[in-house]
Write a structure and sequence with these properties.
Blueprint (H helix, E strand, L loop, with lengths): L3 E5 L2 E4 L11 H15 L2 H8 L3 H14 L5 H16 L17 H5 L6 H11 L22 H4 L5 E2 L3 H11 L15 E6 L2 E6 L7 H15 L5 H16 L2 H13 L5 E9 L10 E9 L1 H12 L1 H6 L16 E12 L8 E4 L3 H7 L2 E5 H6 L4 H8 L2 H26 L18 H16 L4 H5 L8 H17 L15 H16 L5 E6 L2 E6 L2 H20 L3 H13 L3 H11 L7 E4 L3 E5 L2 E5 L4 H13 L11
Helix pairs in contact: 1-9, 3-4, 3-6, 3-25, 9-10, 10-11, 17-18, 17-20, 18-21, 18-22, 20-21, 21-22, 21-23
């Protein structure tokens, strides 16, 4: 079990276990090193994409911190403020997306004005100014039914000075039209800015937006080519370099196809503009990087799902017209992460399924990974939570099967979930707009929940022979519904509703199922003054998951904006404030961290080999990494701490 590395208020930093790296060949270690260096240069991009105020704020705060005496009120408050910002990768909460309350007091900051008024003005304007409340607003109507311009009111840095209508009109006029389904992700790597001459399209590429950082990424990717494990991996890296050079959406698709075909390599990586959760229109993508290596034993079990993937596709509980005729090109692995940067740092997901393009998934397949060392490192508070959240009759099965079932849920979510289904010809999921991310995450979770109770999984070898499938599934159903209905609210401030896609997804599923369930079979109950979830009838719960899955698959396949909006706003957005207040009072007694981060392992050259060095201080490492990023990056510069 990993110990807390550092703790400030509700934030805990945990060391990421990278055991097994020493067993890689020297070629693989050097490949991982150069890929990690390429990833670290994208940190600047991710910070600036989250908010145009992040880089100026970090720079000014660090200037004040370095110029003040240790132990002074200002020094202490600035350090705590920087720690919070480092942990969330900027001004907005990493999971909820709302503007962060910071521990810096205005009168304390003012004591520095005589030393550097410019720094004080910059910090004051940002920290005490009137910034957008949320990084990404994902509802086009408010609670009163009034229209919301999600572009104008979001704090993320994808659009400047524009309205949603202006953005849509610009894209309609300037994006190429396609007669086939192979539509590149136009706009995935751009920022649109309104100027006196019209709308300026700023493209992230070697000679465009963030050009200095991109040049360093290209340099280290070029070095990585020398150590590629095979031709498929070489082609994956080569096409990524080409995409960074041109900035063309079609070149990114070419890379995604090549990356998808690289299934035999032991070193796994993602690098680039990947996920669109933070763009209110779901088009622009944030930078992220992960470097990892495969775990052979765990990967063999995951592959049992792949071997039977056509069975999963054929037996999905929705209309045949929404299913793939042939589920192909899928691969899956269990991996150990050794480097992360950008949107995946300092917090990491449990699983990843890429590429996101529907046409590439349909014609070439996808790759799924379970981030094994991330899951094990998150287990520090399991016992306290288990004792508090679940009824006594579920304690034993959750203790026995909880982690295993959660890990299998992740595998099913990424492989059989995101990899399943199809969009009807002539439909485009971009039309679902701000609600697409929530709908897609719902869809993948529901596939996992629907199948995890099926005894066929034991026959396939996905479950070990000694597993009682009913108990494992019940453990997952109880824990999932508990988390979605109220457990995840421990990470949400009282009075707030849900804005982030994964939070909305889990609540949507849980609230819909609880509303439609026979209360004798599946229900939220009160016992001894506390709220619990009870699942008496496993098949009834599975049936409900299947019905909701069919509804959501039809929404995706037909690009039904109204259907998506109705579900998300009805079940996934509003929080029961009375339930939330009671739950926070109950859970706060445990003094658990609400935000869990990971330190960034550093791959370092030592003689003729590469070693991993773990930082002794999360704060000190983040300070040094940021200083390197903002100091006029020159090509071939290495990131080192």
């Amino acid at each position: 079990m990993n110990k807390h590395f550092e703790r400030v208020n509700d934030i805990a930093v945990v060391e990421l276990n990278t055991a097994g790296f020493d067993g890689l060949s020297e070629q693989q270690k050097k490949l991982a090193y150069h890929l990690s260096q390429a990833g670290l240069w994208g940190r600047y991009i991710a910070l600036d994409q989250d908010s145009e105020h992040n880089i100026p704020l970090f720079t000014a705060l660090i200037e004040v911190y370095n110029a003040t005496d240790e132990g002074s009120d200002l020094h202490t408050q600035v350090k705590d403020t920087l720690f919070v910002l480092f942990a969330h990768n900027g001004l907005y909460h990493s999971t909820t997306g709302h503007i962060l309350p910071l521990p810096l007091e205005k009168d304390v900051l003012e004591t520095f004005r005589a030393t550097n008024s410019d720094a004080v003005d910059t910090i004051s304007h940002i920290v005490f100014g009137n910034l957008p409340t949320y990084r990404t607003v994902q509802a086009d109507v408010d609670e009163h039914g009034n229209t919301v311009d999600v572009v104008a009111v979001s704090g993320a840095n994808f659009y400047k000075g524009l309205s949603i209508d202006e953005v849509k009109a610009y894209r309609e006029a300037h994006y190429p039209k396609h007669s086939d389904d192979e539509v590149p992700p136009y706009g995935f790597n751009e920022r649109l800015v309104k100027t006196e001459n019209g709308i300026e399209r700023q493209v992230i590429c070697e000679n465009g937006l963030y050009g200095a950082q991109v040049k360093n990424i290209i340099h280290h990717l070029s070095n990585a080519l020398e150590f590629a494990e095979n031709e498929a991996q070489h082609e994956s890296i080569r096409t990524l370099i080409e995409c960074y050079r041109t900035g063309e959406a079609k070149d990114f698709d070419t890379h995604c196809v090549a990356w998808t075909k690289d299934t035999e390599s032991d070193v796994y990586f993602i690098n680039g503009l990947i996920e669109s959760y933070k763009d209110p229109l779901g088009i622009g993508c944030n930078f992220e990087s992960i470097v990892a290596f495969k775990n052979p034993l765990q990967t063999a079990k995951v592959n049992k799902i792949i071997e039977n993937i056509q069975w999963f596709e054929d037996n999905l509980p929705f209309d045949k017209q929404f299913k793939k005729d042939k589920a192909q090109g899928l691969s899956a692995s269990s991996i150990t992460v050794v480097s992360m940067a950008g949107d995946t740092s300092p917090s990491l997901p449990l699983g990843i399924n890429l590429p996101n393009s529907d046409w590439i998934r349909a014609k070439h397949g996808s790759k799924s990974v379970n981030l094994d060392n991330v899951a094990t490192s998150r287990s520090t508070s399991e016992v306290a939570l288990r004792n508090e959240l679940y009824l006594p009759q579920y304690q034993e099965i959750i203790e026995r099967y909880g982690n295993m079932a959660a890990s299998l849920h992740t595998d099913l979510h990424e492989i059989a979930g995101h990899g399943s289904g199809k969009v009807l010809e002539g439909r485009n999921t971009d039309d679902i707009g701000a609600y697409y991310s929530t709908i897609e995450e719902c869809r993948a979770d529901l596939v996992a929940l629907y199948y995890i109770a099926n005894p066929k999984l034991k026959e396939f070898g996905v479950f070990d022979a000694d597993v009682v499938v009913e108990d494992a599934a019940r453990a997952e159903y109880v824990s999932y519904l508990t988390n979605g209905a109220f457990g995840q609210l421990r990470r949400i401030d009282l009075g707030k509703d849900l804005t982030q896609a994964h939070f909305r997804n889990r609540q949507l599923i849980s609230n819909w199922v609880l509303e439609h369930a026979d209360k004798d079979k599946v229900a939220m109950i009160e016992q001894d003054g506390k709220t619990y979830i009870e699942v008496n009838d496993l098949s009834h719960a599975q049936e409900l998951f299947g019905k909701l899955l069919a509804k959501i698959q039809e929404i995706k396949s037909t690009a039904d904006f109204e259907g998506a909006r109705d579900l998300v706003l009805t079940y996934g957005t509003k929080v029961d404030q009375s339930l939330h207040a009671r739950f926070l009072e109950r859970i706060n007694k445990l003094d658990l961290a609400r935000v869990l981060c990971f330190n960034t392992p550093m791959l370092v050259e030592k003689g003729n080999t590469i070693v991993i060095e773990q930082p002794t201080s999360f704060f000190d490492q983040q300070m040094q990494l940021h200083a390197q990023l903002v100091a006029s990056p020159s090509v071939s510069k290495k990131m080192s701490v």
